[in-house]
Design goal:
- This protein folds into 2 domains: 30 residues; 64 residues, 2-Layer Sandwich (Alpha-Beta Plaits), CATH 3.30.70.
- The protein is built from 3 helices and 4 strands.
- Strand 2 and strand 3 form a beta hairpin.
- The chain is elongated.
- With 108 residues, it is α+β, with helices and mostly antiparallel strands.
């Protein structure tokens, strides 16, 4: 039994050493990071908006922006909309959503 254990340990050491020499680091499953950061191609567009006067205006524009695929995040305040989106979403798409919310005019 001891011979088998020693052979297994030696085989594991040889494998780990060979992998490290090839530039491939071995990471135990409990050492893998829980989150990984990836570069994104996100764009931020800010548009001033005329006609917004209250929280209902903010809610209406928020609803329309949330329907656009490719919008990652947004901040809607009275008179100003800031949208983080993918490259395939255009400023025109955002303006259309603002107008679709009803009675609001994008100024930029």
């Amino acid at each position: 039994m001891k011979k088998i254990t020693i052979v297994i340990v030696i085989a594991m050491l040889v494998c780990f050493t060979a992998c490290e020499e090839d530039g491939k680091a071995i990471v135990a499953p409990n050492q893998i990071p829980e989150t990984q950061e990836f570069e994104t191609s996100a764009v931020i567009t800010t548009i001033s908006v005329d006609g917004m006067t209250c929280g209902n205006c903010v809610a209406a524009i928020t609803r329309e922006l949330s329907k656009i695929e490719g919008v990652n995040d947004f901040d809607v305040k009275i008179g100003k909309v800031t949208v983080e989106h993918e490259n395939d979403v255009t400023a025109a798409d955002i303006r259309e959503a603002i107008m679709a919310a009803g009675g609001y005019t994008p100024l930029d």
